[in-house]
Amino acid sequence: MEVVRKYTDFPELTAAILNEFIDKIVVYEADKTSGRREQQVDIYLNFIGKFSVPGQGIEAEPFDPVENRRAQWRGYYHRNREKILAEKAERREVEKAGRLAAQPIKTPEETAAEEAAKRERKKAYQREYQREWQKKKREQREQSTNNTEIMENPEAVI
């Protein structure tokens, strides 16, 4: 009881004060069965015994079936991740093979003609883009020239 009387009024809680009040701390093995890491810690205080934090465990969260299902899926996914990823990769390979089989086989001449047409479309797009860019620059130049003339001769505007 001397310890309690000694610390009836203290400005801050320090490590020294805590060490005088704590008898022992028991740390249990971590539990990962719920998909989250949970670990129990018991604190035993002198003169009191096991100390539990007030309000801890009393307020239970409302049951959310959607979140519960997500948690179940996350647990399943983490346990079977490699199997799931292998199945997805296999499905992708089957789909890719199906798409490739559905495409007609092209002769080298047809492939070359397609490539030439593709290059020509790209050049046409670049020419059009260049024309638009030059037109925009020309308009900006004309606008700045008009602004300069107005600044040099403000009486002509009035």
Write up this protein.
The chain has 158 residues and is mainly α. It has three domains: 2-51, no CATH class; 65-102; 119-156. The protein has five helices and three strands; from the N terminus they run ααβββααα. It has a three-stranded antiparallel sheet with strand order 1-2-3. Strand 2 and strand 3 form a beta hairpin. The model has no long low-confidence stretch (mean pLDDT 83).
Topology:
Blueprint (H helix, E strand, L loop, with lengths): L1 H5 L8 H7 E6 L13 E5 L3 E3 L13 H15 L1 H22 L5 H45 L6
Antiparallel strand pairs: 1-2, 2-3
Structural class: mainly alpha
How many E-type strands?
3
**Helix residue percentage:** 55-70%
The rounded distance between the terminal residues' Cα atoms is: 98 Å
Shape: flat
Low-confidence stretches: none
Average pLDDT works out at: 83
Strand content: 5-15%
* H/E element order: HHEEEHHH
| Radius of gyration computed on alpha carbons | 39 Å
Q: Which strand order do you get reading across the main beta sheet? A: 1-2-3
Number of domains: 3
Largest sheet: 3 strands, antiparallel
Tally of helical runs: 5
